[in-house]
């Protein structure tokens, strides 16, 4: 998605102050039923080839067994993601092209594994529920590490941290987050934003403050994009989503605006199904090795600047 010059999202300017006080989770609402789309050759998707930073010395790759061995043998990494979650991920039916930050990250991971990507688009609640029945190998879809999800999924270390924010229609009377009391607020169903509004969100090692009033009426959607549509139609008074997604919507002409500063940060990671038919330990180890390498050689920072106009890969306190 962005090869053109873009302004720094105003919601992201508050990241520095927010990172010192609160953090966490993940976003995204899911797509439609599972479907296989085009795969991209690793050489075409490599961001490392474009960066001037010298790559960090790679750590030794883990012994390939279980699901990792199966992926390497097949030459294909099957990745689940959301086809309607720009700028993280989106699919252009007219051109048949995938684009976005998560898309570039997944392609780069595949490149460093020596395989190609194959995209799958299951619904978000299906991805987070685990028990994938070997329909895809990993989720690279801006997923946060919650205690509930960690019961069925194995997570890598975070590859980036994104702010969650509140949006209202441009002509709304709502000027502050406390004015959401008693209002209808849209969110993606079974995602961390819903958990945040329900005040049930728990992420090991992270503490944060529930800033949205407790008495809001929560309205859930299949994707954040659908929630945006209903916000425009006045079916909800506000919505909570990733600030980059909301900024992208504003950039594309949606008459909405952000209210206040981001309400929390989300640590986002790659996920693997614990119930896969093949052992996943070596795959998780390899993913962690590659993500650490991409942090160290600047690839993740470069991709963040490309898509968001600011580096949000460092995490709180960095």
Describe this structure in words.
There is one protein chain. The protein has 318 residues and is an alpha/beta fold. It folds into two domains: 25-161 and 267-308, Periplasmic binding protein-like II (D-Maltodextrin-Binding Protein, domain 2), CATH 3.40.190.10; 163-265, 3-Layer(aba) Sandwich (D-Maltodextrin-Binding Protein, domain 2), CATH 3.40.190. It is 29% helix and 23% strand. The protein has eleven helices and twelve strands. The strands form two sheets. Strands 1, 5, 6, 7, 8, 9, 10, 11 and 12 form a nine-stranded mixed beta sheet that branches. The longest helix has 16 residues, at 281-296.
In short:
The protein contains eleven helices and twelve strands. With 318 residues, the protein is an alpha/beta fold. The protein starts with 14 loop residues before the first helix and ends in a 10-residue tail after the last helix.
């Amino acid at each position: 998605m962005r090869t053109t010059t873009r302004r720094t999202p105003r919601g992201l300017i508050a990241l520095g102050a927010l990172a010192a006080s609160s953090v966490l989770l993940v976003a995204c609402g899911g797509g439609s039923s599972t479907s296989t789309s085009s795969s991209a050759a690793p050489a075409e998707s490599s961001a490392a080839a474009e960066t001037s930073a010298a790559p960090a010395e790679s750590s030794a790759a883990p012994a390939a067994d279980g699901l990792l061995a199966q992926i390497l043998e097949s030459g294909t990494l099957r990745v689940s993601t959301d086809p309607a979650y720009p700028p993280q991920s989106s699919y252009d039916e007219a051109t048949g092209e995938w684009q976005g930050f998560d898309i570039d990250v997944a392609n780069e991971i595949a490149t460093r594994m020596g395989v190609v990507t194959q995209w799958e688009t299951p619904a978000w609640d299906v991805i987070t529920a685990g028990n994938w029945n070997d329909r895809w190998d990993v989720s690279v879809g801006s997923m946060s590490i919650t205690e509930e999800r960690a019961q069925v999924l194995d997570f890598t270390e975070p590859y980036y941290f994104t702010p969650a924010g509140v949006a209202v229609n441009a002509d709304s009377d709502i000027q502050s987050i406390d004015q959401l009391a008693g209002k209808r607020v849209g969110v993606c169903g079974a995602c961390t934003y819903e958990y945040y509004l329900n005040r049930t969100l728990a992420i090991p090692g992270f503490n944060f403050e529930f800033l949205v009033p407790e008495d809001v009426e929560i309205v859930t959607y299949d994707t954040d994009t659908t929630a945006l549509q209903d916000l425009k139609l006045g079916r909800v008074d506000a919505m909570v989503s990733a600030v980059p997604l909301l900024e992208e919507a504003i950039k594309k002409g949606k008459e909405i605006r952000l209210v206040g500063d981001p309400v929390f940060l989300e640590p986002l990671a790659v996920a693997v199904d614990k119930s896969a038919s093949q052992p996943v330990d070596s795959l998780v180890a390899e993913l962690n090795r590659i993500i650490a390498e991409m942090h160290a050689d600047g690839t993740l920072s470069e991709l963040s600047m490309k898509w968001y106009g600011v580096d949000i890969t460092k995490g709180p306190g960095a």
